[in-house]
What does this fold into?
Amino acid sequence: MKIVVLGGTGMIGSKVIANLTERGHEAVAASPDTGVNTVTGEGVADALRGADVVVDVTNSPSWDEQAVRHFFVTSTGNQLAAEEAGGVGHHVVLSIVGADQEPESGYLRAKVAQENVVKESGRPYTIVRSTQFCEFVRSIAEAGAEGDIIRLTNAYFQPIAADDVARLLTEAIVAPPANATIEIGGPEAIPLDELARRTLAHDGDPRTVVTDPEAPYFGAKVGERALTPGADARLGEVRFDDWLANNVPPK
Ligand SMILES: NC(=O)c1ccc[n+]([C@@H]2O[C@H](COP(=O)([O-])OP(=O)(O)OC[C@H]3O[C@@H](n4cnc5c(N)ncnc54)[C@H](OP(=O)(O)O)[C@@H]3O)[C@@H](O)[C@H]2O)c1
It folds into this structure.
């Protein structure tokens, strides 16, 4: 199959391109670097010509509420219009587990708006909602830093390694359209404060993690299980401790 990966130069996109190529597909990465801008529409129709499947793993350069909503809604609309014109048979988009559970977060609201553009388009689709990537736990924790302490919620996260995201996303890309939302996640649910303590211990970082159930994530208080997937989720294999030990040199 010819599969165009919009955002195919990014962290998940580049791994998906490698997986699809290894399986013998014609996988094409498209992004502003390759002359394709899904927000302005530049190069989109040309890039999608002859594609069987289009994968959207783009991300907004700005997370400002207005900007991120504009990015995901406009980008997705442009993609789907080009897919309709070109007869593309499957649109796959990567979204976030629990996005609809956190209405105070502008970024997550924008991801829900992106999903709605897909669902309302009438085009064949699969929405793959993932939990937070292991690769982002450090920066999520840093958002709670206040001097020598890091204040974080003890809501459960279920971090998944980017390699597992790409592997499970690849399965959805080569399958027929689900015309539904499927969930993927890491193998174990661990409270965010505990994930941060493990990361700090790995780094030899002397700061203290203070547990605060009211501490915000993406600007909003998060429900205890709002960001963990349902029982039907497909799970990755890499445990957070193994990911830390094998992928992250201590700071
Ligand atoms: N972080 C998490 O824990 C998490 C969890 C679940 C789902 N997700 C979702 O996963 C997706 C991919 O994340 P990622 O970390 O792989 O992203 P990333 O590494 O930041 O890559 C983003 C990609 O989007 C491209 N891009 C940016 N603006 C574009 C535009 N106007 N037109 C076309 N392409 C554009 C970038 O191209 P350039 O490099 O050329 O700028 C890059 O290839 C996002 O949609 C995110 O919401 C993230």
User: Anything to note?
Assistant: The mean pLDDT is 95. The chain has one domain: 2-245. The first strand starts at residue 2 and ends at 6. The CA atoms of residues 97 and 166 lie 16 Å apart.
